[in-house]
């Protein structure tokens, strides 16, 4: 048994810990983004882990209006902030283009343990203890709970140093020229977090207070942050098996007259298993339209209301699905989906057809033509 060698107290912690795992997506510049629920609507937030969560100001609103408005922000059953006033900032242009609604700060995670798995692009939120796949031996206690800045104790060139973590920077390690001299390092040295050690290139900056760890460290191991107990965990990916609860077929409910969000697993099970050695076979008796979209794709957003309208109009005759391109790149690559928006139209008889960058006024007729619905009375 996997738990056989865990001390009794640790077993109890694992057994009494609830945990939820969420997929995150990488934005244009590598930022980690989660789909939260903001005032009962899906909203994309970047994981920043600054001191406080920030909402981006809508273009037509004033800072005073937003600042004095309360909002409810949640993620699954684990994170919930009800009717709170959040800090407000103007969105950088790149975030505005990708429809990012805000930045997630440390204040949202004060009562939970946050675990980042960059290898599988997943975030696990557990309470009151670490997730079951994180070993207790990889814990590092902090001097105090993170407040304004999340600082990680690490070893650089066999010397202890505490550095802030910046998730918006990609390098493993950036040091000021002054700190390089203090540590006696040049371009490449060992970096060690908990029991995981690797050789890394060192980026340098002239800013005296410019030393920090970047999100590159997450390629070397899992990072858990226990804000309540002022501890972090860092564990190499090959140190312990990670088993995430897979989404079962019953977890996705197809509602008649509405587009349904699906992923690769559902596609293989219910649409077309292109991994099989057998000839092409469509797995349904109703034609379908699959809309490949992304948060940063403005034409996709303009197309979305029309897809909703067509799904309602042809309820029971044509199924409509939506696939998030950024979250399902494997599926998109396998199907040679590149430009967005792209619609994959699959009839009950015949081969799938694609419609790239559809003209709205022609879309309905093309869907009916490709599905064969225009020949039916």
From TrEMBL:
Cross-referenced SUPFAM superfamilies: Thioredoxin-like
GO cellular component: cytosol
Database matches in PANTHER family: GEO12009P1 (PTHR45663:SF11)
Superkingdom classification of source: Bacteria
Annotated protein name in UniProt: Putative thioredoxin
Pfam families for the chain: Thioredoxin (PF00085)
Molecular functions per Gene Ontology: protein-disulfide reductase activity
Domain Thioredoxin, first and last residues per copy: 218-373
Example GO biological process: cell redox homeostasis
């Amino acid at each position: 048994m996997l738990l056989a060698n865990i001390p009794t107290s640790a077993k109890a912690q694992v057994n009494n810990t609830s945990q939820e795992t969420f997929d995150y997506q990488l934005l244009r510049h590598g930022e980690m983004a989660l789909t939260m629920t903001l005032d009962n609507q899906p909203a994309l937030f970047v994981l920043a882990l600054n001191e406080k969560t920030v909402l981006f100001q809508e273009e037509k609103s004033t800072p005073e209006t937003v600042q004095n408005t309360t909002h409810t922000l949640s993620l699954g059953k684990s994170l919930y902030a009800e009717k709170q006033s959040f800090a407000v900032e103007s969105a950088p242009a790149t975030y505005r283009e990708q429809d990012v609604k805000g930045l997630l700060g440390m204040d949202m995670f004060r009562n939970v343990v946050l675990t980042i798995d960059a290898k599988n692009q997943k975030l696990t939120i557990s309470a009151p203890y670490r997730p079951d796949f994180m070993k207790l031996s990889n814990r590092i206690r902090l001097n105090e709970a993170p407040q304004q800045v999340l600082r990680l104790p690490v070893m650089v060139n066999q010397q202890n140093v505490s550095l802030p973590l910046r998730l918006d920077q990609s390098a493993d390690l950036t040091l000021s020229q002054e700190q390089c001299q203090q540590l006696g390092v040049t371009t490449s040295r060992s970096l060690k977090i908990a029991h995981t050690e690797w050789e890394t290139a060192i980026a340098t900056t002239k800013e005296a207070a410019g030393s920090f760890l970047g999100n590159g460290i997450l390629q070397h191991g899992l990072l858990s942050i226990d804000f309540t107990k002022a501890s972090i965990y860092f564990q190499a990916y090959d140190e312990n098996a990670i088993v995430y609860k897979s989404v079962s077929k019953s977890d996705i409910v197809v509602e008649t007259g509405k587009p349904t969000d699906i992923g690769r697993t559902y596609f293989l099970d219910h649409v077309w298993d292109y991994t099989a050695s057998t000839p092409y076979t469509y797995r349904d008796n109703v034609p379908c339209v699959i809309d490949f979209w992304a948060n940063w794709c403005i034409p996709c957003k303009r197309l979305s209301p029309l897809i909703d309208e067509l799904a309602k109009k042809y309820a029971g005759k044509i199924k409509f699905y939506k696939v998030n391109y950024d979250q399902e790149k494997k599926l998109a690559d396998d199907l040679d989906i590149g430009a967005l928006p792209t619609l994959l139209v699959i009839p009950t008889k015949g081969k799938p057809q694609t419609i790239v960058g559809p003209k709205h006024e022609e879309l309905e007729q093309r869907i009916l033509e490709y599905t064969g619905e225009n020949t039916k009375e």
